[in-house]
TrEMBL record, chains A, B:
All copies of domain 3-hydroxyacyl-CoA dehydrogenase NAD binding, residue ranges: 4-182
Domain 3-hydroxyacyl-CoA dehydrogenase C-terminal: 186-249
Matching InterPro entries: 3-OHacyl-CoA_DH_CS, 3-OHacyl-CoA_DH_NAD-bd, 3HC_DH_C, 6-PGluconate_DH-like_C_sf, 6PGD_dom2, NAD(P)-bd_dom_sf
Keyword presence, Iron-sulfur: no
Highest taxon listed in the record's lineage: Bacteria
Protein name: 3-hydroxyacyl-CoA dehydrogenase
Length: 315, 315
């Protein structure tokens, strides 16, 4: 199998390096800052150790994974023979356009050029490029070695065959591609997250419940089923006759709720003070970094559980 | 500790019987259909065995749990000495009003009267009762022995002390109470679920992605973190400076998405055919019951994992 290039060795780039190397790919890691790619090695080694301890290295050893990741000093060296480029640069349109122009100029014609962006549409950074048909968004939830979903988003001019190859590539490296048919702000996941957060902020802003009640209602309630079957299968299994039966029973309830939800809470207003006060009571500002480490440990244990449950019960 | 009465021995009533008995309570189970309460025994025994196998019986034996659940033949016997009544009858306003009138007439003055209803507001069935101040909704996600969140919803006239006692009671029996300050259609969890489903149906209806992509985006994406920290803590840990930093970075993105989301997809229209077709391809109509059993096994394994992770890493 051919190599993968990662352009941008920050948090997302490093995480993708581990993800691809764990799947047996040769990874070339380049960053415009010459210190960044070599500097990623310590982080990568620590994560690889943790993944090995949870049997999440795909049967490979830590040494094998580390040996597959090569910091390189030029973009040309990164792209040489690459089947896939994962661009992980800054989230601003001008540098993104410049990077994609360079990638399109240097990469072999059949290399797929994928951006990790969460906020920019693929049409915005690929417009006008000779190779715009091979440019896409492949947006992960960080870190991709623990969260497998990756959104594949085409521009209007993306070649359908590029999308098919992209989907196959992501499956080969053990990720779960969500294949969009066309671009829209926020893609799939941030639109779903945004919808949930809108209601969460609204309930808190209007005083129905506190932020902790919302978090518990998801973490000790709805997200238990969602975390292995998703929202459509959840409702499909929540009425004796399946999803059509569910909609027949509950559409009126949800239509009524929707009618009450046509105003935005001001996330930057008083409700933010309420949420911040609750969060800082539980986790002080100077405890956030440590809590992020805790979150990743729990996420890793959850992934190990899901892998075992997939094997034991099936998906 | 005093006894708990369950009025209505259907799916939810049986599940609550196990939940309360596992916590060491004496449970009296009554149903207007004389066959229902005794008929629940087989189901309860099977579930207790499964819970024991996953160390989810709170340290009690199956025999202890079964011995704590008493089918009774009169509502008076059920309510005698009960600290808490969990009403699990039909989801229609007239029978609910009649049941609560009977409960209020028969129960000792300080007994809390809680309904499992998901669709009726507490004011609607407690209005006019002499003991309306002790009537609330305690809405679970089924089954409560696997999903700990329970919404506590007051009517405008509910005594604040009843809410405090209800919260304490639910914590004592190992559930996670979400305490609302006032009633609203859908309470917390179905409003959050509805918001997510609205966007999910809209994305499918408008052809951006298929139902399976939505389910994977949640099950292999967003819900992994949500399943142990919830949406507010998720964003609090997703920006270096916490939730205020996150809102500063992403409010514009979400405001834009919100502006694009002010129309409802017709859940009963063509999109339902799309969702149904996808669901029935994966799980045929006659496979739904078996898939529900599979879901509950996975849910049980997930709960066992969460218990272990809580002990190992903390919450």
């Amino acid at each position: 199998m051919s190599a993968v290039a990662i352009v941008g060795a920050g948090l997302i780039g490093r995480a993708f390096a581990i993800t691809f190397a764990r799947a047996g790919r040769t990874v070339r890691l380049w960053d415009p800052d010459p210190a960044a790619a070599p500097g990623a090695a310590g982080f990568i080694a620590t994560v690889a150790d943790d993944l090995a301890a949870n049997d999440l290295l795909g049967g490979r050893t830590v040494a094998e994974v580390l040996a597959a990741i090569h910091p390189v000093t030029t973009i040309e060296a990164a792209l040489d023979g690459a089947e896939w480029v994962q661009e992980c640069g800054p989230e601003r349109i001008e540098p993104k356009r410049e990077t994609f122009a360079a990638l399109d100029r240097i990469a072999a014609p059949d290399t797929i050029l994928a951006s990790s962006t969460s906020g920019l549409l693929p049409s915005a950074f690929s417009e006008g490029l000779p190779g715009r048909a091979r440019c896409i968004v492949a947006h992960p939830i960080n870190p991709p070695y623990l969260v497998p979903a990756v959104e594949l988003v085409p521009a209007p001019w993306t070649d359908p065959d590029v999308m098919r190859r992209a989907e196959a590539f992501l499956r080969e490296v053990g990720q779960v591609p969500l294949v969009m048919t066309r671009e829209i702000d926020g893609f799939i996941m941030n639109r779903l997250q945004g919808a949930l957060l809108e209601e969460a902020f609204r309930l808190v802003a209007e005083g129905y419940a506190g932020p902790e009640d919302i978090d518990r209602g998801i973490a000790d309630g709805l997200a238990l089923r969602w975390s292995f079957i998703g929202p459509f299968e959840t409702i499909d299994l929540n009425a004796p006759g399946g999803v059509a039966d569910y909609v027949a029973r509950y559409n009126d309830l949800y239509a009524g709720i929707f009618a009450q939800s046509q105003r935005r809470a001001d996330w930057t207003g008083a409700v933010l003070d309420t949420v911040t006060a609750q969060r800082r009571t539980v986790t002080p500002q100077d405890g956030l970094a440590e809590r992020q480490i805790w979150r990743d440990r729990r996420l890793m244990a959850l992934r190990a559980h899901k892998k075992l449950a997939d094997d034991t019960f099936g998906r």
